[in-house]
Amino acid sequence: MSTIARPGTIRGFSPKLLLGAGAVLLVALLFVVLAPLRVFSACVPSQTLPQQSGAAAGKITPPVARLIQASQQGTLAEVAQELDLQLDGESIPIAVAVDPCRVTEASEAVQPAGGRVASSQDNLLYAYAPVSTITAIADKDLVMRIDVPARQGPLLAN
Questions:
Q1: For 19-78, how does the pLDDT look when each residue is reduced to its tens digit (9 = 90+)?
Q2: Is the overall model pTM greater than 0.70, yes or no?
Q3: Are residues 69 and 128 in the same domain?
């Protein structure tokens, strides 16, 4: 005994079901095609990043500059306390925004300057670095900005 398909269906599948399946396939196809583009657009080669004039110009935020000045004046502990930062000897906690394509390289670059990377998240490195080396770290072309961490917490725990 053979089954006869009803008018408006394809071998027993309703148009609504076929339309829904087609939409799901289209979304999946778009995701597969566009996902690599999204990753690529977040990773801009460092040669296309804007270069700043002067050593570390514009890369060091005012709170970090204040800590550098305080270190030179012998008031580092007081200023760190005002900014609610926990010192590690003469090292201060910093958040280093780096070229997204070169996070591993940036992590390796902080260590020779006397820094210690505590953790990383996306293109941010959370580290402790001696105040005297902050400018040298900022001079590196893969470093985009150095700031104090937004909040002290488990990322920077000793």
A1: 666 666 665 555 555 554 444 444 544 433 334 345 566 899 999 999 999 999 999 999
A2: no
A3: yes
Same domain, 31 and 89: no
The one-letter code for the residue type at 66 is R
What pLDDT, on the 0 to 100 scale, is given for residue 26? 63
Domain that holds residue 1: 1-42
Instruction: Compute the distance between CA of residue 25 and CA of residue 6 in angstroms, rounded to an integer.
Output: 25
- The CA-atom distances, in angstroms, between 138 and each of 8, 32, 38, 82, 145 are 68, 38, 28, 23, 7
- The C-alpha angle with vertex 62 and arms to 87 and 71, in degrees rounded to 5, equals 40
Q: How far apart are alpha carbons 101 and 122 in whole angstroms?
A: 10
Q: Token pair for residue 137?
A: 């770290």
